[in-house]
Amino acid sequence: MPEKSPSKHYTLQEHEFMAHAIQLAKKGTYTTSPNPNVGCVIVKNNKIISQGWHKKAGSGHAEVNALADVSVEDSLGATAYVTLEPCSHYGRTPPCALRLIEAKVATVFVAMLDPNPQVAGNGIAILKGAGIEVHVGLLEADARALNYGFFSRMEKNKPFVRVKLASSLDGKTALSNGESKWITGPSARADVQKYRAASCAILTTAQTVLVDNARLNVREEQLEFMYPYNGVVTQIRQPIKVILDGHNRIKRSTIDELDLFNIDLDSNSADTPGIVIIKSNTGLSEFQKEFKDRGDIRIIGANYDQQSGFDIAQVLAICSSLQINNLWVEAGGKLAGSFIVSNLFDELIVYVAPKLMGIGGMDLVPFGPLENMSQTKSLNLLDCRVVGEDIRLTYSPKV
Q1: 129 is in which domain, residue-wise?
Q2: CA distance 175 to 74
Q3: Is 214 found in the same domain as 118?
Q4: N or C terminus: which one in the chain shows less Cβ crowding within 10 Å?
């Protein structure tokens, strides 16, 4: 794999052009899954002559969109600024490296190499083989931040995992009778919709689905931003629903009764199920038969223990195999505790409401009991901010 260009001294203008490409890439935050967000700027005579970004999986990549309305005469000798290494393989679209060669650009600035094994330096090699000057590494950290989930899946075989919890000021998630609606206010609930919209999948449990009648969808009326509709993206990309069901409680009739399947597959990528139900390997074949004619629902078996529950690492590997980049975990404290104790989360997001729920309420993360302070889980505080009447705390693991 080629290295980045450590000896290249980037000018202020080169920084500005790549920064603009990065801003373009951000436009795909809610729509490109499972593909990465990528932006591209075409520059000639120190002026931007065209630009583009990847809008949706299966549609044109950033380079293709940037060059769509540019003649070869105009792009001859131009410079391209791309936030991720141009692809070199035929997928649902042709290789972008070849498109840049066809456009006869002279120079390509690439923010970072693509960790996808199908690319992994091949795009750079193709460009250089065609005589194009290539520089790698301009604003690499900014480019990496665009696609933390994609890179996690490619480099670690696991999605970027956000675990969400909501509690009262005294650390309770429900009253002793199980009532929990609503702990947080409307602003916090709207904030959750933003995270759901940016996620490839929402992971929950059969218990949460059945008790809370959880639909696990993005509710446009609660979004506090204009969803990025355009000529390619015409509807909200709903996240896949991944349900852990260790006791085989989710039946075919359950999904229909709860109206759980509220997703239009056209808004997602090809061959992507709307619902994934992860069940114990025991008796799995019978449940798979029940759903055999439902291509929108996939039943997958995993290791399950009556005491410890599902093997979280295996669950994440399953999610990775389904091309899930960003996973939003929204369930009870027990599942959240499994992620936290095993250090298999990337961010823990806790909404704290200005309420006191008193003795007997359900604990935020019910793990333990612990015998000494060395057994406690320490976290790094990444962010703290007011969301309406509540506070949102964001943590990462301390390892």
Answers
A1: 12-146
A2: 66
A3: no
A4: C
Phi first, then psi: what are they for 374, rounded to 5°?
A: -65, -15
Last residue of a domain, one of 117, 146, 175: 146
Would you say residue 313 lies in a domain?
A: yes
Same domain assignment for residues 83 and 51? yes
Return the SS3 of 241: strand
* Same domain assignment for residues 120 and 269: no
Q: Are 282 and 241 a contacting pair, CB within 8 Å?
A: no
CA gap 275, 117 in Å, rounded: 28
Q: Please report, for the domain that includes residue 278, its CATH number.
A: 3.40.430.10
Question: In the listed set 146, 162, 191, which residue is the last one of a domain according to the structure?
Answer: 146
Q: Where are the beta strands (DSSP E) in the chain?
A: 39-44, 47-53, 79-82, 107-110, 133-136, 160-168, 172-174, 201-205, 240-245, 275-280, 297-302, 304-305, 309-310, 326-330, 347-353, 362-363, 379-387, 390-397
Using an 8 Å Cβ cutoff, are 287 and 243 in contact? no
Catalytic residues: 63
Tokens of 134: 């290539």
pLDDT tens, per residue, the chain with 399 residues? 455 555 578 999 999 999 999 999 999 999 999 999 999 999 999 999 999 999 998 889 999 999 998 999 999 999 999 999 998 866 666 789 999 999 999 999 999 998 887 777 889 999 999 999 999 999 999 999 999 999 999 999 999 999 999 999 999 988 888 777 789 999 999 999 999 999 999 999 998 888 876 778 899 999 989 999 988 999 999 999 999 999 888 888 877 776 655 544 444 444 567 889 999 988 788 888 888 777 788 899 999 998 888 999 999 999 999 999 999 999 888 899 999 989 999 999 999 999 998 888 888 888 878 889 988 889 999 999 999 999 999 999 987
Whether 3 is covered by a domain: the verdict is no
Residue 6 lies in a domain: no
